[in-house]
Amino acid sequence: MASLAYRSPTYYELSAPPELDWRPYRPASYLAYRLEWDRRGAMGDPGDFPLHLDLDATNRCNLRCPMCPRTYYLDEGDFAWAPNGLGDLDFDLYVRLIEEGAKNGLKSVKLNFLGEPLLCARLPEMVALAAKAGLWVMLNTNAVALTESLGRKLLLAGLTDVFFSFDSPYPKEYEAIRVGAKYDKVLGNIASFMEAKEALDKKAVQTRASMVLPENPKGREEIKADYARLFRDLKVAEIGFGLPTVMGRDYESLNPATFRCPDLFRRLFVFQDGVYGPCCGDWSRQIPLGGAADGRSLKEVWHGPEHMALRKTHLSGAYRDVPACRGCSVPYLSTVEA
């Protein structure tokens, strides 16, 4: 099996073979955006505005996957991640965020965070609005609700990147992890989407299938090979392997002394109820950056005192001074091989 390419502290990927590569069909501006993404993370430079927004189109989900923070908090009866209940992102707020972003150099949006975006009834409309604003439009999905009709609507609306979360190449293991999903049905949904992509000649659309690897490394190489074979047969371009975060584990005792989170300098998160967050790991909102209700713009939040202080702490090498960062799994996982 081909070696894995390092992509982030907790994620490794098999890149697309030439016949499935989507990059040649994208403009030079896309490469410039990705180079700036890497530069900001490496240099600790937030620039004038975030390059990317993660917008939770909905915080509802149709599965109860055991490794998901959403499932963990539900089982614990902890609703710090959704203090205002379950629902979809306010559409007027979404319009406002996209319009501000398009005027200030935003390059991409991903339409999910803690929920399953396909459950949002206005998702095709949201994709179209962002695409018309000139943004790269991404989403992660478990593909349970990915009907052939919805897939075509999303492609025609301007979806540019879709990442399928499918956590085992083996039916029994998959259904034990993706609780509530049926292996054959979901795999068929993905196959139908890939057929629609080809029929619509959407060569520039990136597709990726990814799974969270078992914590025990025994048998991982065989799993990776079988997984890659399964999705390459469906012509999915990228094959990804994530490292598991074990919810409830004491990562403070495992984390290295020094670490700097690159996402603080390139992306901003928006919870379903309009509250802003700094990263993908602050599920319980320990680092508040304000919200839509306080009237601050995205730019004001990006350069606000809370965010600037957080970046300063990381730049000084003192990330352990922030409880949420000290207990995050990413610093530890950045030291672990996939």
Describe this entry's structure for a reader:
The protein is built from 12 helices and 10 strands. The relative contact order is 0.16. It is α/β, with parallel strands linked by helices and 338 residues long.
Keywords:
338 residues; alpha/beta; ten-stranded mixed beta sheet; 12 helices; 10 strands; globular; disordered N terminus
Question: Strand order of the main beta sheet, please?
Answer: 1-2-8-7-6-5-4-3-9-10
Beta-strand content bin: 5-15%
Distance between the termini: 14 Å
Major β-sheet annotation: 10 strands, mixed
Q: Helical percent range?
A: 25-40%
Mean pLDDT score, rounded?
93
Structural class based on helices, strands and sheet pairing: alpha/beta
Query: What is Rg?
Result: 19 Å
What's the count of strands? 10
Number of helices: 12
What shape does the CA trace take?
Answer: globular
Order of helices and strands: EEHEHHEHEHEHHEHEEEHHHH
- Unreliable stretches, pLDDT < 50, 5 or more residues? 1-9
Topology:
Blueprint: E1 5-8, E2 11-14, H1 28-43, E3 52-55, H2 69-76, H3 91-103, E4 108-110, H4 123-132, E5 136-141, H5 148-157, E6 161-165, H6 171-177, H7 183-199, E7 206-212, H8 220-232, E8 238-242, E9 267-270, E10 276-277, H9 298-302, H10 305-315, H11 323-326, H12 330-333
Parallel strand pairs: 3-4, 3-9, 4-5, 5-6, 6-7, 7-8
Antiparallel strand pairs: 1-2, 2-8, 9-10
